[in-house]
Backbone:
């Protein structure tokens, strides 16, 4: 039996024929169980999910729906025998599905099989249940993954010299999703590589007009840089690079080239070319593993010691693949330096995870690094410790200590990228306790180092901090346009709407109902419903909401939930939110990010 949720919710039997699922409530039960991904969904929760105001006998109705689904899904099952697909466990039900199109889609994207993944889409995910809160987060996640797959497929075609093939698909992509700057960039680049320079420039002008006139933001650095490159045709630099690369390839072997590639990727990342880096880094790791040399693979994986300050991954599928590669090669390594680098990589690439393994990896990497006489490895390990320090609220003092050690270590040993990181961590920590004098000093130090060492991404973080200090919608909007959205989607997606909403909440102004809050939607949606007077709907959302993930916005997400729980008089979640926030009682909610604030945590307690 195969299930489909990429479009309307359906099921196919082993012969590929559609299974009759009866009415919309039956499909809703099936969809809700698929969303649960093999976890038990209590029957009482199904009642709450199926009805805003459950009628008398709703629980019996759910049992009837389940019985009917069982007959449809296993028509040949003998009477009074146990079902194998939709089974009863404890207080509820679980679907023992092994084949769901959304799961195959995710696996294909993770494997880089973008064309295969996109062929699975029949329409919007969970199309029958677009307005249901229990489907919202999954719909948003799958939709975002699809848009990413479209762009990754276009990138792959450009790399393979198939620019003309990518043009039509990208044109439709930017028409449907005009806010995605990466789509505009790829379309212009594909036109340029097809020999259509004038059309490429016209696309960039369209992008600029749309972004400015409809969204009120300027194009990011990637679009501006591409336009300049096309105008200049980048002839001289391309020629120098081609000659040098050709000479290098003639005189070195594949293994040396791979290690050098990682070095170049590291340099590109520091100077802001993150989109290019993401495209090539995983390929370099895969190539190293294919050569069958575990030491080489370990060096390639562990050499990418680029400082990380933001605690949400730019590309979760790629990060997970890198972690798997590091775990595969780790048992083959006895050398402490390589082990420390692999463990630090696992900690960094697992940002946002609440699992035990990344924290264990960070601690072990630090423990090993402190026994070595290698400041670069210690800085790398401390970066992993910082990333894994965001699992609970109120850790600004701990993070400030990490930042102070990094700053001093890096200054002594000429590690400018980590010296910048140390100042940014200390900026965030000072901001958390509203010590803006100290935060100003660290912002200035980071900017000065960034200008001296060609690190333009520093300005992303200091511009957001300046916006927080100014605390106006205009300042936040300007900060959001300081960098290309395609460079750091883990930072960018939904952040500006969240910052504007935080400003509105603190000033008792209406929050936008139509903004794209991206990954922050589950924690702000209850407040959106309350603003519409839908208190019972908000209460349902609060009953089912997942705890916020680790990260620099952990306190902000909990503060949003606490405010909604108080307004909806949802005492269980209010108590849970207050318990989570209590360790940060002396801090400012959200200011730990250096980007936004929801005011004193104490006001939510």
Residues:
């Amino acid at each position: 039996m195969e299930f489909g949720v990429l479009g309307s919710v359906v099921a196919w039997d082993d012969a590929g024929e559609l299974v009759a699922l009866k009415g919309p409530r039956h499909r809703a039960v099936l969809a809700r169980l698929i969303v649960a991904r093999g976890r038990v969904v209590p029957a009482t929760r199904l009642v709450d999910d199926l009805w805003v105001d459950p009628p008398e006998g709703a629980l019996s109705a759910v049992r009837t729906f389940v019985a009917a689904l069982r007959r449809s899904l296993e028509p040949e099952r003998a009477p009074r025998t146990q079902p194998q697909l939709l089974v009863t466990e404890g207080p509820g039900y679980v679907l023992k599905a092994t084949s769901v199109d959304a799961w195959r889609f995710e696996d294909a994207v993770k494997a880089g099989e973008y064309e295969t993944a996109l062929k699975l889409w029949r329409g919007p995910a969970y199309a029958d249940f677009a307005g249901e809160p229990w489907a919202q987060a999954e719909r948003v996640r799958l939709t975002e993954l699809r848009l990413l797959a479209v762009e990754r497929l276009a990138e792959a075609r450009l790399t393979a010299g198939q620019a003309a093939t990518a043009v039509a698909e990208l044109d439709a992509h930017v028409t449907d999703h005009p806010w995605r700057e990466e789509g505009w960039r790829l379309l212009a680049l594909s036109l340029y590589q097809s020999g259509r320079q004038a059309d490429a420039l016209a696309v960039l002008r369209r992008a600029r007009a749309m972004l400015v006139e409809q969204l009120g933001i300027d194009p990011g650095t990637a679009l501006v840089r591409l336009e300049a490159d096309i105008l200049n045709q980048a002839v001289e630099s391309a020629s120098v690079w081609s000659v040098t690369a050709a000479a290098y390839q003639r005189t070195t072997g594949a293994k040396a080239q791979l290690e050098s590639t990682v070095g170049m990727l590291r340099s590109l990342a520091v100077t802001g070319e993150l989109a290019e880096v993401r495209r090539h880094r995983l390929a370099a790791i895969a190539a190293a593993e294919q050569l069958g040399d575990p030491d080489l693979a370990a060096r390639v994986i562990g050499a990418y010691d680029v400082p990380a300050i933001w605690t949400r991954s730019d590309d979760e599928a790629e990060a997970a693949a890198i972690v798997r590669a590091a775990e595969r090669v780790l048992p083959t390594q006895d050398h402490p330096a390589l082990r420390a680098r692999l463990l630090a990589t696992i900690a960094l690439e697992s940002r946002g995870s609440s699992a035990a393994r990344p924290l264990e990896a960070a601690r072990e990497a630090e423990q090993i690094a402190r026994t070595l006489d290698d400041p670069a490895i210690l800085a790398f390990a401390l970066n992993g410790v910082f990333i894994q320090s965001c699992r609970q609220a109120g850790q600004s003092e701990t993070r400030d200590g990490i930042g102070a050690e990094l700053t001093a270590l890096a200054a002594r040993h000429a590690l400018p990228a980590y010296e910048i990181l140390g100042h940014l961590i200390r900026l965030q920590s000072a901001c958390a306790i509203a010590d803006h004098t100290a935060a100003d000093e660290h912002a200035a130090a980071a900017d000065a180092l960034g200008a001296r060492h060609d690190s333009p991404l520093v300005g992303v973080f200091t511009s957001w901090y300046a916006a927080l200090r100014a605390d106006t919608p205009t300042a936040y909007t300007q900060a959001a346009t300081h960098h290309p959205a395609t460079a750091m989607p883990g930072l960018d997606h939904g952040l500006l709407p969240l910052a504007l909403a935080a400003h509105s909440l603190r000033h008792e102004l209406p929050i936008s109902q139509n903004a794209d809050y991206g990954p922050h939607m589950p924690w702000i949606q209850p407040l959106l419903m309350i603003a519409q007077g839908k208190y019972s709907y908000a209460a349902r959302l609060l009953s089912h909401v997942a705890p916020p993930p680790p990260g620099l916005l952990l306190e902000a997400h909990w503060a949003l939930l606490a405010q909604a729980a108080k307004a909806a008089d949802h005492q269980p979640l209010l108590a849970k939110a207050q318990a989570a926030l209590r360790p940060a009682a002396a801090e400012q909610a959200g200011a730990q990010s250096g980007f936004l604030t929801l005011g004193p945590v104490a006001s939510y307690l």
